[in-house]
Amino acid sequence: MRADTRAEEAWARERRALAAVARGDAPADRYVHGGLVLNVYTGELYPAHVAIRGERVAYVGPRDDMVGPRTGVIDARGRTLVPGYIEPHAHPWNLVTPAALARHVLPLGTTAVVGDNLSCYQLCRAPGFARAMAALSRLPLRYYWMVRIEAQAQVPGEAAMFPLPALRRLLDAPEVVAVGETTRWPRVEAGEMSLLRRAALAALRGKRHEGHTAGAKPERLAAIAAAGVTSDHEPITADEARERMRQGIAVMLRQSSLRPDLAELVEPFAKSGSLGRLMLTTDGSTPAFIAEHGFVDNLLRVAMRQGIPPIEAYRMATLNPATYFGRDADLGGIAPGRYADINLLHDLEEPRPAAVIARGRLVAEGGALRVAVPEPDWARIFTPAATRFTRRWRLAPEDLALPSGPIPVIRLVSAVITTAEVRPMRADDLHLALVDRRGGWIATTAIAGLATDLDGLAATLSTDCEIVAAGRSRAAVARAVNRLLDRRGGVVVVDGDRIAFDLPLPVGGLMSRRPLPDVARAERELRALLVARGYPWHDPLFTLLFLTADFLPSVRMSSRGVWDVKRARVLRPSQPLAAGPR
Amino acid sequence: MRADTRAEEAWARERRALAAVARGDAPADRYVHGGLVLNVYTGELYPAHVAIRGERVAYVGPRDDMVGPRTGVIDARGRTLVPGYIEPHAHPWNLVTPAALARHVLPLGTTAVVGDNLSCYQLCRAPGFARAMAALSRLPLRYYWMVRIEAQAQVPGEAAMFPLPALRRLLDAPEVVAVGETTRWPRVEAGEMSLLRRAALAALRGKRHEGHTAGAKPERLAAIAAAGVTSDHEPITADEARERMRQGIAVMLRQSSLRPDLAELVEPFAKSGSLGRLMLTTDGSTPAFIAEHGFVDNLLRVAMRQGIPPIEAYRMATLNPATYFGRDADLGGIAPGRYADINLLHDLEEPRPAAVIARGRLVAEGGALRVAVPEPDWARIFTPAATRFTRRWRLAPEDLALPSGPIPVIRLVSAVITTAEVRPMRADDLHLALVDRRGGWIATTAIAGLATDLDGLAATLSTDCEIVAAGRSRAAVARAVNRLLDRRGGVVVVDGDRIAFDLPLPVGGLMSRRPLPDVARAERELRALLVARGYPWHDPLFTLLFLTADFLPSVRMSSRGVWDVKRARVLRPSQPLAAGPR
Predict the structure, then answer these.
(1) What are phi and psi of A55, to 5 degrees?
(2) What SS3 state is found at A219?
(3) Which of A89, A204, B384, B543 qualifies as a cystine partner to A281, CB 3.0-4.6 A?
């Protein structure tokens, strides 16, 4: 049987079975009894039972003739049923694995996540990411994907990294709902053909193009919308949100660890009758932020606190993203035919659920996960070749040596924004390096405003998946880097010759194998430790991550060297590493 | 170059050009100057110019730096700009051609129509319909299609009429946005696999399944929704509309010649905050109704008269259908990247536009069409083989003879609803026949409640594309049928031996080649003539059309004979025709 015939047959059989349950001619697998249902389609709240067959809702209403002797009855008396929450824009390779994230957020009511594929794709390319996607497609939390069509930072061989045939195959996958996010928006505005040819793959399949227009002035948005960008999650004021909406761009209002802006963003929309194209997102929130505040449940809480009517707030986290991604026949409401992803709330005002049903099964109760969420076989995805820790090499302190004359010193003026100061390194500056995981090259300079009393820090976190390292002691920095090389990934802080902090990230150098709360504790510990050493900002992970993010002003580290973003030129070139591969 | 590469390249080039105009780096083709724009995304109304490049909007805003010496400027001062209207559910083979319909409704502001493919498909099958679709894809009015997966009425060889490979190819076409409408909803409710396998073709491509659940009780809707039906246009009360919305089914509120229900349907929703999944439709309105009342413009007028706020009314006819069909990146709003389909209104309260822009060009002004709307080459689509008028044959009066004993007499109890009376034919009954276009068979009985003083009537209008004929005089009926056979399609009324009315429908026996207002006059003339002969209902065209519609109660004509819908059995079998092919 051909693949399309098989899929058609499976679809038809599932629908036949659902209709039989709905008619009362076949028993439901599960029956959610006695709750109040929030109907996101009509805005009504009324008592109704929900009959489930397999992964989908078969029936919502007063009847019980589909309850058989083997139907599992879930008691929902006193509970309000709302659709499982959808996170429309997440980065699920951020210190914890997508499976670990799922384990943590399922009990908080998030049952579907549209994830960025970047970190995995950048290291493992299309075959590796496709393998991860296949494994993750079986989790109780439903992962959908946005697929990058350019790197987050300029990297050598970027075009070869995103070949059209591989992207075409990825875009054919039903789990892939968008391309993007496309961070270097000036390339979109300029109508660069190499980018647009890749964006076409989504448009021609009726899929989306996730934008990122941080800082774009209103008059620059038209070209971005004209070039086919369909959403944006970067507005940091309600005016910016409205400007993007005016251009027909769907807006995701953000509350993230880096930018907890939602209260201010959403409040002016409380009285608007035009919320149908608004969504809510946690974007790249770190484990510590998620552990402290929650996930989509937190977005709902903030939105309702700012006066968004509950029905509209829940729509912004359910029906609206489902509709935006063309998945409203599957997701976003409690109705026959939809996936049985349902949160049982104590009441509408408290979005953190008493119990969670996902893929038709009770997956969490009282905040505790009740089902297994298996990890993909990461060793087959992040192979040694993919993670690049393939050779034995060591960084020497002298590899970090800087000239005594003027160099482009990077100054942090916020957690992530930088300026350049061309001058000799001073005593209160730190050494800064971006180091090839394979040991082939190193880019060095000095940094001000990161910390004062930090001997050595190294991390395999950076948007280009290399090693970022900093510190006042070259020996301590080299020791931190070498510890990482032994560990094949992680974050290390060195005091003198002592390891003061060590978070292994063995999965691709990106992710721990530990649960989110454990990693969150490590993250808080790292932050406290850096603050104690003079780190003056609020989000050290994003400070490290974005030192290579050349879509941000004004000077960044790259494999080419210290990079002036606006002038698009190298201020100080990188060097081959003596310790590198021979 | 492969077809997908070509499409990607074309898409990218178009977007590059649009972005250049938006930046002010290239001249616009057209520039709509000085109007107020209704922004359906934000609900705002504000002054803005609109720059157009090719078929699409490149820019909306205050700038004019994209106006070059060859840019055509359209003066919109004093005008309000709203998106072109979308008719989400039409039957565009109804007495006039799709092109003639487009000529009439473009000046009324409708710039996109989702059309039923049934009549054309039933006669011409997939290759013929595909040819029609290709020709119609070049009109200034944009045709999209819903593709049937079953016949409107049971016909012999129905399964062979809808082969999966041909349907797969049709569903791959970007103009095809749905399957359906599926009128025999009990088959959906029952989960019939042959139907669901065909419905799968849409679902697996993210496309829609247009429902038709006339008369379905609330408790039967769940199985229909569970089986994957995504919309319904059949509610005749607001309660019926709400019941379907509750099931997650998107509802199209209808104002048609047969069912002018919109005022009653829409009024209870005036104060609702849940209008995002509501649309408006004219369904199968006849030319006379369209000529008298208008098209989507009329729906807007009725909705606003009932208290729907203008912004919501316009959304119901623009953004909502565009979103429902997954086309909001192309349609439904005035924003960069969207098709430049724009109505220039005197003011928001009057939806009939002062001027209409479609595919980026001014196509109508002051109600008059300004561009050519070419007809497809119908002779290549409705070939002699397809239209079935292939043989010379004649109907004889004796072919209509009925026995003197009891027969299943059909009684009309409304324009379209029937009951059966088993009794001998009476003097005030009419003869009724359904006749094979090829002359192979005839089904006969008597009918009451159609007219009293009608000698003979014949029409090539029926949902199964055969000939329906009625009258008190067998000779007059035979004469009417034979006139049709000469004409190869039409509607004929005979008084004695005189032709009293003759509307040729040479395109497939379905459509005139004349403009809509001319055909509307003929339709009114026919109605007056039938009323004068005792026709007591309001819509003779649908009376004739639906005499074969076996999704309606309770007895219908079919190729098998007189058909009891509920019991699914033949009450009086059809007969081979002596005059038929030898």
Answers:
(1) -90, -5
(2) helix
(3) A89
Closest chain A residue to B320 measured between Cα atoms?
Answer: A276
Nearest partner of A494 among A459, A534, A442, judged by Cα: A459
Q: Measured between CB atoms, does A186 come within 8 Å of chain B?
A: no
- Mean pLDDT, to the nearest integer, of A68-96? 98
Taking CA atoms, what residue in A is nearest to B224? A19
Closest CA to B310 of B302, A311, B118: B302
By C-alpha distance, the chain B residue nearest A198 is B8
Residues in B closer than 8 angstroms to A272, CB to CB, are 42-43
Residue A318 exposure: Cα atoms within 13 Å on the Cβ side: 30
Cα A303 to Cα A315: distance, rounded to the nearest angstrom:
11
Shortest Cα distance, chain A CAs vs residue B249, angstroms:
9
Residue ranges of A 145-164 with Cβ closer than 8 A to chain B: 164
* A142 phi and psi angles, rounded to 5 deg: -85, 115
The token pair that represents A221 in the structure block: 């948005």
* Cα A54 to Cα A338: distance, rounded to the nearest angstrom: 11
A178 contacts chain B (CB < 8 A): no
Q: How far is B255 from chain A (nearest CA, A)?
A: 22
Distance from CA of B253 to the nearest CA of A (A): 15
Rounded Cα–Cα distance for residues B128 and B161 (Å): 13
What pTM value is reported for the model? 0.96
Instruction: Find the angle CA(B464)-CA(B469)-CA(B473) to the nearest 5 degrees.
Output: 170
SS3 A98: helix
pLDDT digit string, tens, across residues B440-473: 999 999 999 999 999 999 999 888 899 999 999 9
* Pairing state between β B72-75 and B30-33: parallel
Q: Tell me: the pLDDT tens digits for A237-278?
A: 999 999 999 999 999 999 999 999 999 999 999 988 899 999
Please list every residue in chain A whose beta carbon sits closer than 8 Å to the beta carbon of residue B314.
none
The Cα–Cα gap between A174 and B525 comes to 54
CA distance B5 to chain A (A): 9
**Residue appearing with tokens 């208290």:** B307
Residue contact B336–A248, C-beta within 8 A: yes
